[in-house]
Specification:
Rossmann fold
C-alpha cells in the first residue's frame, strides 16, 4: 500500500474545495487505498490550523469527523531524527521527519516551493495533482465525490 504524508494545507484545501485534487487525495486515504502517515505533532497542527478564525465558516461537525477519521486510520509514526532541511518554513521539517521514519512513498503539499528538492531519501515530494497522476499511473483509479 502507498504510504503518504499529507501537509496541513492539503487537508484544509480538501475541506474548502470538495471537488479538488486535495479532496481526492483525502478520499483515497478514507477509503483505505493509501496509508496516511502521521505524528502527534502533525495531527495537532491539522487541528490547530482548522480551528483558526478564518476557517470557522467550515462545517465544524464535518471538520471534526474528518480529523477523527484521519486519526483512526493513520499509521502512527514516532520520528527518531530531527531534520533542519526546510529553511523557508522550519515547521515543515516535522513532515519530512515523519516521511523519513515511515519510509513514505509520497509527501504531498500545496507549498511545493518550500522544498528545494523533488525527493527526500525515498519520499517523492509532490503537489496533489502530481500525486493523483502517480496514483493513476500505478493503476489505482480515483473515485470522485458526488
Amino acid at each position: 500500500m502507498v504510504k503518504l504524508v499529507v501537509d496541513t494545507n492539503l487537508v484544509v484545501s480538501a475541506l474548502l474545495k470538495p471537488q479538488s485534487n486535495p479532496a481526492l487525495v483525502i478520499s483515497l486515504i478514507l477509503r483505505g487505498d493509501c496509508s496516511l502517515c502521521l505524528t502527534q505533532d502533525i495531527m495537532t497542527e491539522y487541528a490547530e490550523v482548522l480551528a483558526r478564525e478564518k476557517f470557522q465558516r467550515l462545517d465544524r461537525p464535518k471538520v471534526n469527523e474528518l480529523l477523527s477519521k484521519l486519526k483512526k486510520l493513520a499509521l502512527w509514526i514516532e520520528p527518531k531524527v530531527s531534520l533542519h532541511e526546510v529553511v523557508q518554513d522550519p515547521a515543515d521539517n516535522t513532515l519530512l521527519e515523519c516521511a523519513l521514519e515511515a519510509k513514505a512513498d509520497f509527501f504531498t503539499t500545496g507549498n511545493i516551493h518550500h522544498f528545494p528538492f523533488k525527493k527526500y531519501r525515498q519520499t517523492l515530494i509532490v503537489t496533489p495533482a502530481e500525486f493523483m497522476a502517480h496514483i493513476i499511473e500505478m493503476g489505482l483509479p480515483p473515485r470522485r465525490r458526488r
